[in-house]
What does this fold into?
Amino acid sequence: MAQQLPAILITGGAQGIGKGIAHYFLEKGWRVAVIDQDADAIDACQQDFGNPANLRLIRGDVAQEADVISSVAEAVEWAGRLDALVNNAGIADPDTGPIETLELAEWQRRIDVNLTGAFLMAKHAVPHLRQSRGSIVNMASTRALQSEPNSEAYAASKGGLLALTHSLAISLGPDVRANSISPGWIDVRAWQANAPANAEPLSATDHNQHPSGRVGTPEDIAAMVAYLVSSEARFVTGQNFVIDGGMTRKMIYGD
It folds into this structure.
């Protein structure tokens, strides 16, 4: 009997960083299941990737438990196993305006998608990850560690992901490892649905403000995901990895 290929489940994987991660793992020969609620992004992703046999695109909302249950079940039935879960789905825009005018519904929407969605996915994926002694990677943000004005809901949701990560690591070990990644500025324009063919290049100033000399790419994040879900990281759990070209270590002064 042929051995099953390893399988990864990526939320919010039809565009942006998630799409970059999906492409990376497809190139590595994994079976890749993607959950995304954006039907247009799913269609565009299917066309961009050429409908490979090892890709399964599932429409679902990670903030709705019924969707999570059915999506995880579909992914596992299709792949035959589950080795890794990447909780990448999230509302990317951090700016919600002054806290005095921030509506509770807007606050709750970010918490539901960015944080509760990761909880629900872990809840229903863990039984399958235990069987494979698999791994969870939560996509946090450098804004869990530092902030810009008017980003309270986003920062709180990403900070919650860091705490959820180390809690999962303690609760699920040694069967399942859990880690998080906090990306900085990642240029995802080429990985968005219906991405413009001739987007303006980023400026030298954009790149040079990073100690690494450039803005990040989804491949930078995917490479860290690949390490964290591999056997080479079997002694790594409960950790957060900042992938930001050194920006959170850079002292910045006013003019």
